[in-house]
Write a structure and sequence with these properties.
By secondary structure, the chain is α/β, with parallel strands linked by helices. Helix content is 41%, strand content 21%.
Length: 231
């Protein structure tokens, strides 16, 4: 269940999130605009909160210090994982000063007189010192999809069961890799390049996986430590 703060700003997300099929409920949150329970390591429940701001609102809150002193501090003390989702067009002049669109073709300085460099540096500091990870999207529909993806990332499976980051890059080859090399290349310390020599030496997966440390060390480039890790 995603709890959505009922105050102006976050309240506008309630209906669209429902339309995406997400379980939402309106409430009052002391800190953050959206809150849900995720699945941490081993399925341990963790709290995941999102502060949602339009770009102009973000600049104002940074200038007044409300985001740093009140919102980000409160989120850090209350929730396990914190996110800042910023929505708006990133428009700026040749000096990097932020602009806002007035009508269709007229650009005016954004209140707060902040440059893109200052904006990004402030956001980086919030992330590094207060754990407030930030993301920026241009339109509300993008914000809704971002929230949907974050929700499912945290609720579909336990944190330590995600596998999409456990991949091995295989450089393109003119000749398709054999099953032997695809398997052996994933062994610790072997990799794509050494898998060729391993295949030439052993020939079959059965021989490779029943070989001793001494037999592995015969292969050029494989020392004692690598052999021990493989065996």
């Amino acid at each position: 269940m995603i709890l959505v703060d009922k105050r102006i700003g976050s309240h506008e997300l309630l209906g669209p999130l429902k339309a995406l099929g997400l379980p939402v409920e309106e409430t009052t949150l002391e800190f953050g605009d959206l809150l849900f329970e995720g699945r941490g390591v081993g399925g341990k429940p963790v709290t995941v909160a999102i502060e949602y701001k339009k770009l102009g609102e973000l600049v104002t809150s940074l200038r007044t210090g409300r985001l740093q002193d009140h919102q980000a501090t409160g989120m850090m003390q209350t929730y396990d994982f914190r996110w800042l989702l910023v929505q708006g067009e990133l428009l700026y002049d040749r000096h990097g000063t932020l602009l806002r669109r007035h009508r269709r073709r007229i650009m005016l300085p954004m209140p707060g007189k902040m440059t893109t460099s200052e904006l990004f540096k402030r956001l980086f500091v919030l992330q590094l010192t207060m754990g407030l990870t930030w993301a920026m999207v241009p339109q509300r529909r993008d914000a809704l999809r971002w929230i949907e993806a974050l929700y499912h990332t945290w609720t579909d499976t336990d944190l330590d069961q995600h596998k999409s980051h456990l991949v091995m890059y295989e450089p393109p080859t003119l000749v398709p890799l054999s099953t032997f090399r695809r398997v052996v290349a994933q062994l610790p310390g072997i990799g794509f390049e050494r898998s060729r020599a391993v295949e030439r030496h052993f020939g079959t997966l059965a021989r490779a996986f029943t070989a001793s440390e001494a037999q592995w060390q015969v292969i050029d480039g494989i020392g004692l430590k690598t052999a021990q890790r493989v065996v």
